[in-house]
Amino acid sequence: MILRADELERDRQIGDIGVADDEASGAPCIYCGGTQSANLFAGVRDRLDFVDGEWSFERCLKCGAALLSPRPHSAELGQFYPPVYTFAPQVAQQSPFRRLLAELEYRGLYRPMYRSQARQIERLCGGGSGKRLLDIGCGRGLRLVETRRSGFEVAGMDFDPAAIDYLQQTHGVSAVACDVLELRHHFAAESFDAITAYYVVEHVVEVPRLLRDVFALLRPGGWLVAAVPLIDGYQAKCFGKSWCQVREAPRHVSIPTSAAMHTALSAAGFVDIHSESDSYLLSASSIALSMIARGTTNAAYAGSIASGICNRVLAIGAAAVSLPLAVLEGAIAHKPSLGVFAARRPA
Question: Among 35, 162, 178, 329, which is most buried by a count of CB atoms within 10 Å?
Fold first, then answer.
């Protein structure tokens, strides 16, 4: 299914698609509420070639966040995602070559990455033993499985019912299929010691509402751990509108700065806010996909077998070569392009 940006805009004007609460141009910043912006990127195309047309990003002059223009309504977002979007070994069942590639990817890249993130979550939350954790946007639960090894009692939420069925049946994890803005309809207030949201915030139009809902679900003293791409990191400066995180438009409704995330978290009531780099493996993969745009999961496991696997292998090689750069930006320069934010609900 190919959706055109100009068709979406036309349908909004004639009433076939819901209009956002504010007009796309000049709408308040979803992180700081600022009302002044400047053009940042124009002519951005979906790197997956799933949504046709061109998109733009504006920069909030108050907090620096990059904001998609025109800004979609929350109800529109689901139609921007192709059937194969994120990695899971099960995406490769139809081909022996793809099964081999998926197994090698999982063992060499994804499992080490998820284990690193699980250790980071345990450290940021002050240990996991006996604590209840909810992962928002959990997918098929590869990170949750590793987080459970740290002693957390885990639960998941994702908008994809098939992913939730897999998580429940294969890993025995309690999980709910719902929209991210329906959390309070499915989980009790003050019922979690920790909530994780890895690469969710940038997909959400109503960021303040999401953060308020997360705050309400946390017990006093509980932690939110959220990972987001950062528009003030080195990769955005290097690649500009060719950065893979920018070319996730229109699925990426925004890309915050570190200051924007701090502002939004503070406004939601969180304290003790601090940030650090996400897994260096993941940061290196972001560099690689900015250089080899067709090395995506979607292209490797849903498109042509020959070109898809070839581009994926090239991207994996580029990620390995880029690993020192990821360490440099995150650990030495302290300007990560993929940041993890920890924030606590006051006790």
Answer: 329
Q: Is 180:226 a contact under the CB 8 Å cutoff?
A: no
Q: Output the pLDDT for position 23.
A: 38
The whole-number pLDDT of residue 298 equals: 73
Residue 90: the pLDDT is 66
Task: Return the CATH number of 89-344, one of 3.40.50.2300, 3.40.50.620, 3.30.1780.10, 3.40.50.150.
Answer: 3.40.50.150
Q: What percent of the chain has pLDDT over 90?
A: 68
CA 218 – CA 133 distance, rounded (Å)? 9
Intervals of CATH 2.20.25 along the chain: 3-80
pLDDT recorded at residue 297 = 77
CATH number 1.10.287 given to 3-80: no
Which residues of the chain register pLDDT less than 70?
1-26, 84-85, 87-94, 300, 303
